[in-house]
Amino acid sequence: MRLTFWGAAKQVTGSMTLLTLDDGYQILIDCGIDMANMAESDPLYPTSALPFDASLVNVVLLSHAHLDHSGKLPNLYKEGFEGQILCTSATAALTQILLDDSARINQRKLKAYSKRKSKGLSLDHFNFIPENLYTTSEVNDTMKEVVPIQFKRKFNIKPGLWVTFLPAGHLLGAAHILIEVEENGTTKSFLFSGDIGRKNYPLLQDPIEMPQVDYVICETTYGNREHSKIADSTAELQDVIKRACVDIPGRLIIPAFSIGRTQAVLFELHKLFESGKLPRIKVFADSPLAMQSNRIYEDFLYLLNKEAKDFKEDYDSLFNFENIEYAQKQNESKAISNYTEPYIIISSSGMLEGGRIQHHIQANMENPYATVLMVGFSAEGTLGARLRDNEGYLRIGNEDLKVNCKIEQTDSFSGHGDVNDLQGFIKHQDKEKVTQIFLNHGEEESMTAFKERIENLGYKNVVIPQKGHEFIV
């Protein structure tokens, strides 16, 4: 068998790993967009979105819905894939709305591209290949091939090949993927972490203990860092709101991914409101995608934790409360900037790469009464990372804006496990029985630190693959 790393190699986004069996059967685990480099890199051919022949892939296993794991699924079909996508039911529901949203953004990109091209203007600033931008129709065709699989159910894909989706936390429906292969009288097992969640995270059930396997493919997003305690997240949010909106008549802007992070923040705000700890200020949720995601979270209430289930029973809703207002249309979004009273706004995307948040950042960057609270990871090269690393100015589009607003950051809402959670994931494996550990989905510094950490625990054969590296397993 061969294991090839086509994405998230020495970087956080773009997860894409290919397992090829001895009989040639190919299993693709995740098919994500590289959020830090939206231009296609190392494609199979000039207009390809992929670095391998999609027509040779037999099945896709999807760990969860985030675009850095799912965002190139329509490209896979465009380039010849004819198989099915296996994932959990909740992942299927969230992937549908995420890919639909991505397709709508693609339409706007193509419209702008075509307009400039027709006028003979420079196209240098477009960082995409037009042929790779999929449509809503292509998303719908993709989603017709999705097969939902229950958590913890051992599913037989073909003779000698089984997959089990194990709860990972991190996001509604997110799974660790266990693959078991029987070939030539020998059984080998592979555990793909996807993204590792955290214990006691808002709304989500805790990750479960993993079985013993032969090979582990482990993410390392926070492989060299510890998070703030989740128990402190509510108090931390309350403190930021006080400083940003009560002590001064200011605005609190929270960039957050529409799926996952926004629900965690809204749930905490709702808890503060019901306990009388949220000031009587307006909360704007500016993301139609987040509204759709809210509904899916409540549809899959049985997958949430006990606190969320009890809260829903007591207050009838996880995310809707008296102070909140949802902006659905674009003009409603833009009108928020005209609101003169202190307010909180939650808008996507979390890394500031597109979405309505860019308008709000642009409108408030030079406002000393505005505070931007970064609540999640921003990959290097993204607008979110440049804002986080505040160098005094921020370039948005063709405009350089002076950063007069306050920039704050918290990791207490991160859906990613920290170094202790990652270590706990690895420690489920007997160091004398696990054959090899591969580290991916992390910046090189984080990977290197985590490699050293688990080697000090006695784990051997820990590897950090390069993109395109193939391993015989």
TrEMBL record:
It comes from Flammeovirga aprica JL-4. Signal peptide: none annotated. Keywords: Hydrolase. GO terms for molecular function: hydrolase activity; RNA endonuclease activity. Gene3D superfamilies: 3.40.50.10890, Ribonuclease Z/Hydroxyacylglutathione hydrolase-like. CDD domains: TTHA0252-CPSF-like_MBL-fold (cd16295). Residues 13-257 form the Metallo-beta-lactamase domain. InterPro entries: Beta_Casp (IPR022712), MBL (IPR050698), Metallo-B-lactamas (IPR001279), RibonucZ/Hydroxyglut_hydro (IPR036866), RMMBL (IPR011108). Residues 262-387 form the Beta-Casp domain. This is MBL fold metallo-hydrolase.
